[in-house]
Amino acid sequence: MSDLTRSVGIVQAQTAVFDTPLQLASGAVLPDYQLCFETYGTLNAARSNAILICHALSGHHHVAGRYTPEDKAAGWWDNMVGPGKPIDTDRFFVVGVNNLGGCHGSTGPSSINPATGQPWGSSFPVVTVPDWVRSQARLADRLGIDRWAAIIGGSLGGMQTLQWSIDYPERVAHALVIASAPKLSAQNIAFNDVARQAILTDPDFHGGDYYAHDAIPRRGLRLARMLGHITYLSDDGMGEKFGRMLKSGDYQFGYEVEFEIESYLRYQGDKFSDYFDANTYLLMTKALDYFDPAKDLNDDLVAALRKASARFMVASFTSDWRFSPERSREIVKALVAADKEVVYGEIESVHGHDAFLMLDAPYVNLMRAYLNRVAEEVNA
């Protein structure tokens, strides 16, 4: 059996409840909250082999394994996390956590507000990447982890990784930032706003309090996902997979699904609207928009990264136009200027932004080589 097909097996989600109020960047305060998380592997006696996986916009704590033998799909990064895989659970204790504001077990808009006995809905406060990092640090305290051997994240997860390295430099040995950016471009903010408008203008949104109306803004969420999914793929990748293939073999001269790519996008939108919460989508995209660790330092990314003490691995993908290699190179350039140790890999791939979830051989080899180094340090 290939070491890339081995699994952590059957897993179980856990919940950590925090009754200490959490001050948010917006000025709002969460009086209490819970985080849903999973762990894989064994924490060593020195508590030095822990790795935190930070998820992207639509991700969650279920990183690897299955909940039952009958589950059709494994965790979202099961191809990278497990025994003998690049993030090797025979050597590391791996933690995946669902961020605050999420819809997979952590406190979010669909959770019950203890002050009202009703779902938070529109009253749930906006959360930011630094807010997530503070809540994750409390989880690390609860787990007895003073210092992460590594923190790893792709896309929005990479932003959390960067923020961790800046806010808690003494707690991060290695930071792996994959397919990410030091802040969003105007184009990316624009994509996010169009997606949010699709949700906000859905008649079933009810100002964010659709739970009370027993409704789901399904059309808006579906459109948001379809738009987002286009930006996660590359033109070459879509062309290679779908081209201009027609479902029926000829034009129908109407507005129903005719091209295979249309069918694929609608399927993705329908599936997403069945399991993701619209308010959570709004929160996650706002956290993306707001991320800017250099904002309070006169836009000086070098000054922001000087606070870090971690060693870095930064990876990008040639066909990723949403978080292009140029954006990763901005991070690398700033790290070098800040006199930080960094390894950079620019991976040839046709998979677009989604490449960080795939198994392109150069990417897998880069991850494996870097994490072998981390494991050697842990065991030294």
TrEMBL record:
Belongs to the AB hydrolase superfamily. MetX family. One of its GO terms (biological process) is homoserine metabolic process. GO terms for cellular component: cytoplasm. Residues 49-337 form the AB hydrolase-1 domain. It comes from the Bacteria. It comes from Aquitalea magnusonii. Keywords: Acyltransferase, Amino-acid biosynthesis, Cytoplasm, Methionine biosynthesis, Transferase. InterPro entries: AB_hydrolase_1 (IPR000073), AB_hydrolase_fold (IPR029058), HAT_MetX-like (IPR008220). GO terms for molecular function: homoserine O-acetyltransferase activity; homoserine O-succinyltransferase activity. Transfers a succinyl group from succinyl-CoA to L-homoserine, forming succinyl-L-homoserine. SUPFAM superfamilies: alpha/beta-Hydrolases. It is found in: Cytoplasm. This is Homoserine O-succinyltransferase. The active site is at 155 (nucleophile), 320, 353. PANTHER family: HOMOSERINE O-ACETYLTRANSFERASE. Substrate binds at residues 225, 354. It catalyses: L-homoserine + succinyl-CoA = O-succinyl-L-homoserine + CoA. Homodimer. Its main location: cytoplasm. The record marks 322 as: Important for acyl-CoA specificity. Its EC number is 2.3.1.46. It is an enzyme of class 2 (transferase). Pathway: Amino-acid biosynthesis; L-methionine biosynthesis via de novo pathway; O-succinyl-L-homoserine from L-homoserine: step 1/1.
